[in-house]
Amino acid sequence: MPRRCRCCIFCQQSFEPSPFRPDQSVCGQADCQRRRRAAYHRRKVATDPVYAQVVSDSRKKWRDSHPDYRKTYRKSHEAAADRNRQMQRGRDAKRRAEFLVKNNLALDLKRSAARGLADRPSGARS
Ligand SMILES: [Zn+2]
């Protein structure tokens, strides 16, 4: 006989799966169900380009119909705006560092390729 209770993948608490969903892995608490839907949404956006386009269009439509929302949100939520600014600075610094690493690597490869050609005996160049 199968085990009746199992643990929720989000809150790790034991729950009894619905008889209609025997392979249910998330309990019925509102917060866990919200997290389950958000995880589904993230996965769907990442894997389904049509779904991602619909989400993108919908967000753009909303932004276009609420043009001042961001400005007023930033004014009324200074802490969130500061945090966002700091996170963006972090992302910018990371991107800059990755760019430098990539370019230094390309330069090193060019330099060692040139050195490799110079090291060969003169008759061996192809
Ligand atoms: Zn749960």
Can you offer a commentary on this structure?
This protein is mostly helical and 126 residues long. The protein is built from 4 helices and 2 strands, in the order E-E-H-H-H-H. The chain has helices at 30-47, 49-65, 69-76, 78-119, and strands spanning 6-7, 14-15. The chain has a two-stranded antiparallel sheet. A hairpin with a 6-residue loop joins strand 1 (6-7) and strand 2. Helix 1 packs across helix 2 (49-65). Zinc ion binds next to loops.
Beta-strand percentage range: under 5%
Shape: extended
Order of helices and strands: EEHHHH
Tell me about the largest β-sheet.
2 strands, antiparallel
Give the distance, in angstroms, between the N- and C-terminal Cα atoms: 73 Å
Tally of helical segments: 4
Brief description of this entry?
By secondary structure, the protein is mainly alpha-helical. It is built from four helices and two strands.
Relevant terms:
two-stranded antiparallel ribbon; 126 residues; mainly alpha; 4 helices; extended; binds zinc ion; 3% strand
